[in-house]
Amino acid sequence: MATYTVDVYAIFVNGADPKSNFSRVKQDIYKANHAWEGCIKFLLKGVYFSKGIVNAGTIPADKVFKNSSIHSLIQSARNANEHKIGIYVFYLKGDFLAEGRGKNVIGVSGTEIVNFKSSTQYEFFGQILLTDMAANRNTLAHEFGHILFKRFDKIQNRFINDDPSGPYIYHQMGRIDPAHNNNRKNLMFPISPSVNPMVTLQQCQLAKMSKIVNIRFF
Ligand SMILES: [Zn+2]
């Protein structure tokens, strides 16, 4: 039997005490493993408590990963982990990111491609920012989904992270959002459900093929 695992590193820059931060990340990982149960298992490989504090309200929600303070945080977290492939989760202080990509943003994710050799041979790592408002929700599980769906699409000749069970349709504006799901019970609905989020077979199968996933056979 094979298990599909993803390594996760948590970095706290929220100024909260280590004990409450540790229970927070444990709960987030627990909820993510519950949401992705039978598909992907997330393994917490490192937890770091920084003395520095980053206020979410100072980081505009668009282009977060180009923000210089976020960029240097990511660099130091990756250096501390010998640039291991995995998902780096940063816990910021405050309720919401500054306005940019919409209002009241409590979580964002991104990826960075490393060692690109060809459309089938490449590596990437994931990065996620969460605010205090993302606690007790499925935000981390949802952001994990965006990262797991990242792949090179040969037809479009570019990287995409479309939900294979998507898209989400904004009925009022007639706009479609390929990264999200139209079923409000699905984990990848734009605002992830707070209880028992659903992951479809297609979503699971695509996630298992992600380059960020480690496959172990027993
Ligand atoms: Zn989303």
Descriptive account of the structure:
With 218 residues, the chain is α/β, with parallel strands linked by helices. It has one domain: Collagenase (Catalytic Domain). The protein is built from four helices and ten strands. The chain has helices spanning 18-35, 68-80, 139-148, 201-208, and strands at 2-13, 41-49, 87-92, 107-114, 123-130, 151-153, 158-160, 168-170, 175-177, 214-217. Strands 1, 2, 3, 4, 5 and 10 form a six-stranded mixed β-sheet that branches. Strands 6-7 form a two-stranded antiparallel sheet. Strands 8-9 form a two-stranded antiparallel sheet. A hairpin with a 4-residue loop joins strand 8 (168-170) and strand 9 (175-177). The longest helix is centred in the N-terminal third of the chain and has 18 residues, at 18-35. 36% of the residues are buried. The structure holds zinc ion (ZN). Zinc ion binds at residues 142, 146, 180, 190.
